[in-house]
Write a structure and sequence with these properties.
The complex is a heterodimer of chains A (about 425) and B (about 120). Chain A has about 425 residues and is α/β, with parallel strands linked by helices. Chain A contains 15 helices and twelve strands. Chain A has helices spanning about 1-10, 25-30, 60-65, 100-110, 210-215, 225-245, 250-260, 270-275, 290-300, 300-305, 315-320, 335-360, 390, 395-405, 415-420, and strands at about 15-20, 35-40, 45-50, 75-80, 90-95, 155-160, 165, 170-175, 185-190, 195-200, 365-370, 375. In chain A, α1 (about 1-10) runs antiparallel to α4 (about 100-110), α6 runs antiparallel to α7 and α6 packs antiparallel against α12. Chain A starts with a helix and ends with a helix. The model of chain A has no long low-confidence stretch (mean pLDDT about 90). Chain B is mostly helical. Chain B has a domain at about 55-115. Chain B is about 65% helix and about 0% strand. The longest helix of chain B is centred in the middle third of the chain and has 27 residues, at about 60-85. The two termini of chain B are about 55 Å apart. Classes of the chains: A alpha/beta (about 425), B mainly alpha (about 120). The interface of A and B includes residues 1 and 120 of A.
Chain lengths: ~425, ~120
């Protein structure tokens, strides 16, 4: 089997990411590395990459995830503290550029047998013993046989659509599922593929405000820098939605564009490509309508798309001199919010170009319009994941995932709290 | 070829196939899947109930629509054979038949059958 292992060493390394705090942009940059292959499930992965700080309440979930990688496997830790059972053999690294090399070496040593895989962290026993119980050893008494594989059978409930008495499927998902925002975990009830109930059990990890927006609250900063950061953020959000819709190569090309983005760049090519591949008509594009009250709670691009004219930039005379007027009012569904990200990114690039040539700086420091929404000194956008429990019931699975991807839900971390 | 020869050939090929299956399984016989790995992958989450549940597949309207189209075609084959001989009378009769069937299709359309889920 040695020649087979050697052949496997040449293939891209299959990596599954467990994304922690503030690690999403870096994960997106790593997607461009040809030496790595990002799997959508830990079952196909050889390496678990834990990127960013993991909050203590999510550690049990990380232990479960760790054990779902087929043996032998290795965990790499980037800006993260290794779990208790793995501390002695943990591969910790700081420099993001090293991932390709480290992952390649780790995978090779694992395949060639130079290195042992990691031990399981959870007990290797069924969640509830069932084998050998009952009349036929099927796990329990009666026709249904109690608890097959240790999980109780579903009780019947009225279906949302027509009231038929059928079995709902109950489970909790997250916080390390790359489709959801990092840290978001929810308890879901499904009727077929329609979501009946959503209960958020863990809010997305709070995201740190980018330094340039933080500085804009203290002193004037170049408008070009501010707008470039905004354009990058919006395009990154959009690339995630595209990845979710199955437009993998288009999403990678957006990320490539983000890395080389310059003021005055045009994204009309991207708009055209998205129209051509039917992104604005993908599953869920016309769903996920938010009310005005929800738009108010979300703030930022989602609120502007829904027609609320909330933009701190309108109060800045320097922005007015550049001819800034907020765009928006396209609607309250996913399509409108995607379009809003595109429009705002294109506007930000245009503003950045004009500000770069005139050297304009912000003059208003009371509040700043961050990509997520309005930030004032001491008042940061709060986590908005609670609206999912109102928004998702009644949507099909694909529509619900598109809706989540079209919203920027994570709260912005208050830097004062960290220092205190 | 005699029937007995065919029979012997069948036995041999079946035995070879079965032996092949057994041999192919040997490299994987030492592979043991741990209990945590058997759990469905939910990004760190866990299932509350067994996935062995009944849900409505909801393709019945689509099935009825298929029958509506199929009936059209089924009666149109014999009709096409006699059409030249019968002439306009056959054309009118088929028009009436299609009109009645298309009421079903229009009804299905109103009920959202054509929306792919």
């Amino acid at each position: 089997m040695n020649w087979l292992a050697r052949l496997a060493c040449r293939a891209p390394v299959p990596v599954y990411p467990a994304i922690g705090r503030n690690a999403l942009p870096q994960i997106q940059d790593w997607r461009l590395d040809a030496r790595l292959q990002w799997t959508r499930s830990p079952r196909q992965a050889r390496i678990l990459l834990v990127a960013g700080d993991i909050l203590p309440e999510c550690r049990p979930a990380l232990r479960r995830l760790h054990d779902q990688l087929p043996a032998p496997s290795i965990t790499l830790w980037w800006r993260s503290t290794p779990l208790a059972g793995l501390a002695d053999r943990a591969v910790v690294f700081e420099d993001a550029d090293e991932l390709g090399t480290i992952a390649g070496d780790a995978c090779r040593s694992l395949l060639l047998g130079d290195r042992q895989g990691e031990p399981n962290l959870c007990p290797d026993e069924p969640p509830a013993p069932f084998e050998g119980r009952g009349d036929h050893g099927q796990g329990g008494e009666g026709m249904m046989g109690g608890k097959p594989y240790g999980r109780p059978m579903a009780m019947t409930a009225e279906d949302l659509r027509d009231g038929l008495e059928l079995d709902p499927l109950e489970f909790s998902i997250g916080p390390f599922w790359p489709v959801l925002p990092p840290g978001l975990a929810a308890r879901l009830v499904l009727h077929g593929d329609v979501i009946a109930e959503v209960e958020i059990t863990s809010a997305p990890f709070p995201v740190d405000l980018q330094p340039v927006f933080e500085q804009a609250l203290e002193r004037p900063v170049p408008i070009a820098d501010l707008e470039m950061a905004r354009a990058r953020n919006h395009l990154r959000q959009l690339s995630h939605s595209m990845w979710l819709s199955g437009l993998e190569s288009a999403s990678l090309s957006v990320l490539r564009q983000v890395q080389a983005l310059q003021p005055h760049d045009s994204i009309s090519g991207l708009c055209e490509r998205l129209r051509r591949v039917g992104f604005f008509f993908s599953a869920g594009a016309g769903r996920g309508e938010i009310s005005l009250e929800q738009a108010e709670r979300l703030g930022g691009p989602a609120a502007r798309a829904a027609g609320l004219e909330q933009d701190a930039r309108t109060r800045d005379p320097e922005y007015r001199k550049l001819g800034f007027r907020p765009v928006g009012g396209r609607g309250n569904d996913c399509r409108a919010r995607w379009q809003q990200w595109l429009d705002e990114a294109s506007q930000a690039l245009h503003l950045a170009g004009r500000a770069r040539s005139s050297g304009a700086e912000t003059s208003y420091t009371e509040s700043v319009e961050a990509p997520r929404g309005n930030v004032q000194c001491g008042r940061y956008p709060a986590d908005a994941s609670a609206i999912l429990s109102e928004l998702l019931p009644g949507l099909e699975w694909s529509e619900a995932m598109a809706t989540i991807a079209s919203l920027d839900l994570a709260g912005v971390a208050d830097p004062g709290e960290g220092r205190a | 070829m005699e029937a007995s020869e065919l029979f012997a050939l069948m036995i041999i090929s079946t035995a070879t196939f079965a032996l092949g299956l057994v041999l192919a399984g040997i490299p994987f016989s030492s592979l043991r899947i741990s209990w945590p790995q058997r759990a469905p992958f939910l990004g760190g989450g866990i299932p509350d109930t067994h996935a062995w549940s009944r849900f409505h597949v909801r393709y019945y309207p689509m099935t009825l629509l298929l029958i509506a189209f199929e009936m059209e075609m089924m009666f149109m084959y014999p009709w096409a054979v006699v059409y030249v001989a019968e002439g306009v009378k056959a054309l009118v009769e088929m028009g009436m038949f299609l009109a009645i069937l298309s009421i079903g299709i229009v009804y299905g359309w109103r009920e959202g059958v054509f929306k792919w889920q």
